[in-house]
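QA checklist item 7 of 12: single-chain prediction sanity check.
[x] sequence parsed
[x] length recorded as 635
[x] structure emitted
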Amino acid sequence: MTAELVRGQNHPLPQVRLEIRISAGSPVLAGAALGDEHGTVHGAEWVAHPGAPTLPGIEVSPQAAADHRLAVDLAALPEAVHRVTVLLALPERPGGPLRFGSLAAPTAAVTGLDGAEIARFVLTGLDAESAVVALELYRRQGAWKVRAVGQGYAGGLTALLADQGLPSAAELAADVEEAVARGLARAVPAPPTPSTPGIPAAPDSPEPRRVGADASRDPAGGRAPGGPIDYTHPGRRPGATAPPAPSPAASHAASDGQPPRPVAGDAVGWSMDERLYNQVWGMFEDLARTTAAYRSAVDFADSRLEKELDQALADPRARLGAAGDAAREEAQARHTQLVDQARAALDRDVAQLAAESEVVEPALPPACARWDNPVWHGYRVPAEPPMAMRLGDLHLPESAPLSIPLLVRLPLERGLWIDSGPAPGADDVFLDSAETRRLAMDAAVALAVRLLAVHPVGEFTVQVLDPAGTGAQALLPLTRTGVVALPSLAGAAGVADVLGRLTRRVDLVQMALRGGAAESLPPDFDPAQQLLLVNDFPHGFDDRAVTQLRYLADEGPAVGVHLLMVADREDAAAYGPLLDPLWRSLMRLTPVPDDHLADPWVGHAWTYEPSLVPSGSGVLQQVLTEVATARTKRK
């Protein structure tokens, strides 16, 4: 449960690797000062800020943004450090807010690496202050705690740093502001302000804005009364996500004023896999926002054209003849100009993302790589489970053929459902039922093999329920290598046996965890995570089995029992609303491209494509052979 802190309140920190998430109503800069046991900050080198974003155990964003994630590893801090003070300040820029009192109250949250909140503090009561100490992480008798501070400074960053005991506070504050200004100068510019008569120009301001659900109210070209939009993910604006040791080439490009060359792993994180994961999700958000800006501009251009045509036709005397034709041509020309400007901005940023994708995709680890990635040629069973796995790819119609990997964190927090219902094929002709079911099983097997392949030996097991045997051909790669065995009992009896064993497993682990006796599980208990692959649901399921399946979907993920279903919802229509909670609890995927997934930022309908094995490829057989060999050696 999240601890809601008030000023002066503290709360213990149960772990040493943390994130501090800052949310504000306007771009703010974030920093952290390291203090000794007396709270003394011994010099500028003890302060992490946008100009020097990385210190041992702490990493902050090198960019002013409305949302920040500060990475903290308390165990990696120098022994002399007993206090980490989290600082926020409003950057000095024309048109920007001058005091926190004019903004919505910022929020600071301390979370684990899994995103679970430990403590939250809303910084209310600020007025004329332009800098504030938000939180303080401090060590007492070997244990770490967080304290809500909320101390503001009307004198800005200079006053705040001086209060930390820094003799060169003014110089350091100037360095921080200069670093922020360099970041803003590299922000993506808005399309040129139209100078055509009749189109109002937005006021100039360098303040970046995030495109959100209200993007349709932004004027042409993505400009709004608040200034030009920088629709890049706040944590990925140029210079914002450079790793602690950027390459010389990237540094040289940045110093020349050119956009830095794409670098795989050019994002914050404690490991290369985590950096790549964060980079992929940053690309996903960037594409969502730049597309929102484009669609907003086109919507504005369309509404402007409609309004101008209405005005041109309102006067019957000017409706016909040369004057009417000229007015309509001028309106159409302005519309074309606005749409072309928006398209040029979109094309520019899609090209930048495509260049990034070209270096990120080959660098992805097997868990996140396509099946045609050469990384699979050297596959060996890993010693550690990955942090994420690829489910497929996502793209938008305006930016094809650019696609972004769809990654999910592991272990899975919810079950997966591959919809084998009617699906469109080529030329919008719907595939027949048998073909859709075959494709759905192929997609399910590819996911099951990936889950097996990316986990260490003995840490993941797949069980299959295929009561009618319709998926036998698709399951051959799994069964032929002996990695997966079909139930000893066929039909409804096999369903009851497998579901009964998995249900008892969930009950047993839950009781052990609730009683604080996880170590007292039976000696023959298999600790491996379990994936139940169900084909042709509800064939072979009676009412009791359906109830058990719902139970596994709800309670299983928390104790390592996961569900992968291949089903057509219409086949289970006889159960009516009884199964609605089941379908809602599962993440729906499709065996063919389908635009049913929405992003959490602007709600675009993204086209999902499953991660399938290329035709004729033997990669599944190769991977499963390695898994089977590793299992044999382990016995």
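[x] summary fact logged: The chain is about 35% helix and 20% strand.
[ ] second reviewer sign-off
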